[in-house]
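Good day; I would like, with your permission, to put a structural problem before you. What I wish to show you is a protein chain and, alongside it, a tokenised description of its three-dimensional fold. Please examine both parts with care and let me know of anything in them that strikes you as inconsistent. Thank you for your consideration; the sequence and its tokens are set out here:

***
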Amino acid sequence: MVKKSHGYRCIIAFSLLIVFSALGCSMQTMAIRTTGGILEYGVESINEEEDLVIAEQAIMANLKMLEALIKGDPKNKQLLVLAAQGYAGYALAFVEDEYPKKAKMFYKRAQNYGLDVLNQKKAFRNSVDGRLEDFGAAMKKFNVKDVPALFWTANSWGNWINLSRDSPSAIVQMGKVELMMKRVLELDESYFYGGVHMFYSVYYGGRSKMFGGSPEKAKLHFDKFIKISEGKFMIGKVLFAQYYGVQMQDDVLFKRLLNETLETPGDVLPEQRLVNEIAKVKAAALLADMDSFF
């Protein structure tokens, strides 16, 4: 049954592409931008899904559709942000734990889509490969409308770096990721359920003090994340347990947060049911492997 619905989605996508190819350039762009709004509803529907198999197949079908639309409208910020968010989410949810090398590829793809948005601002484009000081100055050119692009680019970039810890050239890029998240924090700390605080709770909590870690800052950001999300966005608890709990060797906190995740109904946040179901799977796996962390 799942395969059948997946096939229908592919047929619909292919049919839309045939229609677009028959249109003139300006009409094609208009059609693509209209479809972008429809795809946002599709993302909402996937986020509400509780079945992980259905969700995984639907996400990949939608991502390939997104990429096809982007080819027809390569500067479309709405589509590019959706692609960045989609590939970053897919990598974390379905790939990273078992296939880290493949997850790196998806995070890099997400990062590149995000950069395609941010590079449309000249100051950023001129600084992205340059000095940290110039990059930080370029951040001031962004406003609250740019928060989604900043957040998802930094999110995917940071996760790519996290999976590239054996590469010094990757590690040094973390300073730019932190500056991007700092700008998100300044502009809208509540975006994506306080996602920037979730980032900083791991950023400061998953490293020793020698390498810039700070248990106090990690806890402060985690508490702010819990307040903004009302404790309903469970993946933040899982990540805090995985990074801060293990770094601090706090097995009591580790078990508490993961058990809270398992005991909380998946529909406590209906619009993010999928993420909460994924959090449960990750929590169970971490608990099962607890002896290797403590």
Q: What stands out?
A: The mean pLDDT is 89.
